[in-house]
């Protein structure tokens, strides 16, 4: 009976160790989730602000090592801003347009993957031009 009680004792010790490891893992995951929640709540400018106007950087161009011009979209207007030397200057206001990068100049994409693949291969064989 001595060997049976020793085997039972070892299995109980093994289960206790497994329980401790599982407890530490659960505590670690809870700590990671808590840190992520705190970061979202306390970090300024992170996430979406549903209370004010949505801001979107349309374009940016560096003019020097510390100066740049930024086009910022606020609702239906573009603001041309000068950024540099620790300050931001309003340069001009424009009505919002669709940026050239988002304008579709090519024909609409085919519906299926096979058609898209065939079109891409044809364009690749022609040297990348859209015209036949």
From TrEMBL:
It is found in: Cell membrane; Bacterial flagellum basal body. The chain crosses the membrane at residues 12-39. InterPro entries: Flagellar_biosynth_FliO, FliO/MopB. Pfam families: FliO. This is Flagellar protein. The keyword Cell membrane applies. It comes from the Bacteria. It comes from Microbulbifer harenosus. PANTHER family: FLAGELLAR PROTEIN FLIO (PTHR38766:SF1). Keywords: Bacterial flagellum, Cell membrane, Cell projection, Cilium, Flagellum, Membrane, Transmembrane, Transmembrane helix. Belongs to the FliO/MopB family.
């Amino acid at each position: 009976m001595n060997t049976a009680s020793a085997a039972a004792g070892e299995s109980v010790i093994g289960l206790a160790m497994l329980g401790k490891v599982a407890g530490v893992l659960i505590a670690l995951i809870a700590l990671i989730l808590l840190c992520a929640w705190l970061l979202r709540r306390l970090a300024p400018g992170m996430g979406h602000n549903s209370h004010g106007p949505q801001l979107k950087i349309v374009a940016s161009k560096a003019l020097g090592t510390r100066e740049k011009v930024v086009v910022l979209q606020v609702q239906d207007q573009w603001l041309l801003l000068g950024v540099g030397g620790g300050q931001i200057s309003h340069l001009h206001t424009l009505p919002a347009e669709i940026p050239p990068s988002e304008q579709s100049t090519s024909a609409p994409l085919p519906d299926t993957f096979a058609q898209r693949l065939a079109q891409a291969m044809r364009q690749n064989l022609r040297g990348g031009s859209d015209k036949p």
